[in-house]
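Pilot study result, target chain (112 residues):
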Amino acid sequence: MSDLRDKATTAASQRLSEKVGAREKRRIRARNAKDRTIWIGVGTFGVIGWSVAVPTIIGIVLGLWFDRLWPGGFSWTLAMILGGATLGCLSAWYWVSLEAKAIEEEEKEAEP
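Predicted structure:
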């Protein structure tokens, strides 16, 4: 009976040790990454927002211009809004994937 308690205690202390070790690794990584402040995150969101907004606005302007040049049943404005938003979303996806790759590389370097 005592042997079972010793094994359970050893297993529990090992799990606790692993949790504490993982938490400490995260703290050390956070201390080493002092350049990654909240403003970096806000800036990233700004880049993503502008990368969607600018092509959409350009699409609106081009669409209105095309509608004046070639009036008819087809709405160039709607088509250009859709095209601009699609281009902007692809651009935002590119920025997010770059940031995700950078985070993955940092985590690989931090692991022993």
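One observation from the pilot: The CA atoms of residues 59 and 80 lie 4 Å apart. A full batch analysis is planned for the follow-on phase.
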